[in-house]
Amino acid sequence: AGVGKTVLATELIHSLTLKEKGLAVFAGIGERIREGNDLYLNLKRLAILDKVALYFGQMDKMPGVRSRVGFSAAAAARYLRDYSKKNVAVFIDNIFRYALAGMELATGLGKVPSELGYQPTLEKELSELEEMMNSNENGSITSFQAIYVPADDFTDPSVVAALPHLDVIIILSRQEAAKGNYPALDVLSSASSALDPDIVGERHYQVASEVKSHFQKYKELRHMISILGIEELSLEDRIIAKRAERLRRFLTQ
Questions:
Q1: HEC-encoded secondary structure of 139-184
Q2: What is the pLDDT of residue 3?
Q3: In which element (H, E) is residue 90 found?
Q4: So which residues are the catalytic ones?
Q5: What DSSP element (H or E) covers 93?
Q6: Which end of the chain is more exposed for a tag (fewer CB within 10 A), N or C?
Q7: What is the pLDDT of residues 178-226, one digit of tens each?
C-alpha cells in the first residue's frame, strides 16, 4: 500500500497507447473511488481516453460486483483483440481484491474455508480469470496486474496463487518508497522470465546481471557503512557502493 502501484500503471497505459498505437483496458477491482476518479482525469488530461476502456467495481460495491468486473474487462479485451486486430493491454488494480471478493462470497454461501480463511476454490477462480487473457492470430493480450501483499507476507495464499501466472514480477518496496525513490523498485526481489540472452541479447543480459550483482554487494556492505561509514571500506568496496548509489538514482524518474 502506498508504494505507487496505480501511478506506475497509469504511466504504462500512457506509454503503451501513445507509442505502440495499441489499446488498453483497465479493471479497477476493489480499489478506492478516489483513485478511479484520478485515473479517469489523468487519462483525459493526456488525451488518450479514447484508447482506454475502464471497468470499475470499487471497494464500496458488493463482493459479487468485485468478483465479476475482472471478467468484464477480460471479455472486452478479447473483443478488441479479435475485431480491431490490435494488441491489447489489460491493467488490473488490484488482483488481490478479486481473491478477497471470492472469499467474501464463499463466506456468505457458508463454504468451509481453507488456509487463512480463503475459499477452497481460490486457485481455480484465479486461473479462470487469468486464462481469459491470451493471444491468438488476431493479436495478443498482455496483462499488467497490481498485487497488494497483505502484511508484506509473500507466502499469503492469494499472492502464491497469482504469481505463477505472471512472466515478470516487479516488487515495489516500502523501504525504497520511504527513501523517496520512485518507482520504488526492489531490483533484487524482482524477476523476469524474459531476462534471457536469447530474448534480450547477450549485452543486455550481461549489463542487467552486473547491475544486480552490484546491488547484491551493496546490500551486504550497507550494514557496515551504517556503523563505520563509507570511508572505512576498502577502495574496491567504496567504488561498488558509489556505483550502486548512482545506479539506484538512474533507475528513478
A1: ECEEEEEECCCHHHCCCCHHHHHHHHHCCEECCECHHHHHCCCCCC
A2: 85
A3: strand 88-93
A4: 5, 31-32
A5: strand 88-93
A6: C
A7: 888 888 889 999 999 999 999 999 999 999 999 999 999 998 888 888 8
